[in-house]
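Report of the visiting student (M.T.), summer placement. My assignment was to run the structure pipeline on a short list of targets and document each run. The first record concerns GTP-binding protein.
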Amino acid sequence: MTARTEFILLAGFLGSGKTSLLVDWLALPEAAQTAVIVNEAGEIDVDGAIIAESGTIPMAMLANGCVCCSLTNDLVFTIRALVEEREKAGLPPFRRIVLEGSGLSRPGPILRSLAPLAPLNLAVRVVTTCDASQAAEQARHFDEVASQLAAASTIVITKPDLAGTGAAEALAGAINPLATLVLEQDRAARARAAFAPAPPAALPAGPMAPERAHPRVSVLRVAFAPEAGWEDRLDWMEDLAAFCGDRLLRVKGFIRHPGTGATLLVQAVGTLFSPPAPMSGGQDLPEALVVIARDLSAQDLRVVNPAAPVLVAPYRPGKALTCVPG
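After the run finished, the structure tokens were exported:
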């Protein structure tokens, strides 16, 4: 079976070290067969020039705009062109295509724009850089920071030599307890861990970072009642996306098919849901969803569909959530 090409969106706020992390990665032997797309919000593509200095790699530029709001058609065209040129050259598919987004990009709209590329069967994920020296303060003023952290499957703490990592860890843990956290002092080890494939993880059971690290972001847990059917589950997730819109940052968890007993992994970045994926050994996994949203509380989500057999509560790792009818 041919391995799927990964599409990795490298996100992170302005100056958080995305380009440095990518250059460190491209210097490693594991980075072979990687293509890079660089988007910079400005007319001078400084990041692209820096990456080009790292060696001979297939690279494309998306300049003079933020890819999340103005260049999505160009992005689809560019990815198709990279794949087609590779095929014409008689080479095997890329192992991965990395898009370095601008520091102002929100991952949700970017990933939604990839819908026309469904036939390519890309394995899509988000890696976000979190600046140890500035992220906590930036998150107070810029919603993009929360959006980028919430969308990530992997969060990389950068610039640990400039400041202690405690504030960045607390921010990352409070906004996205679902992500794999990379804490490495060595730059090569940090890059290797950042781009290593992250296997689907169970819902975290450890202690949660202090609450209110980002006052506008809520981490909520959803459970389904025993009488909930398959359509109840699907309808509620569809209603959730419609109700929240751009306020929905991330969804991850497990649902169980009442008919077959199969456990399926559910993931969404923004309102873009991936098809539920079967989990081996799923009978040992709890059925629950973690929802990360902006400016929405558990009470707000309870009115998504008041008649639905679900319970929404603030997320508490290790706490069972039982949905009692009525």
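The chain is about 30% helix and 25% strand. The chain has two domains: 6-195, 217-314. I thank the supervising group for their guidance throughout the placement.
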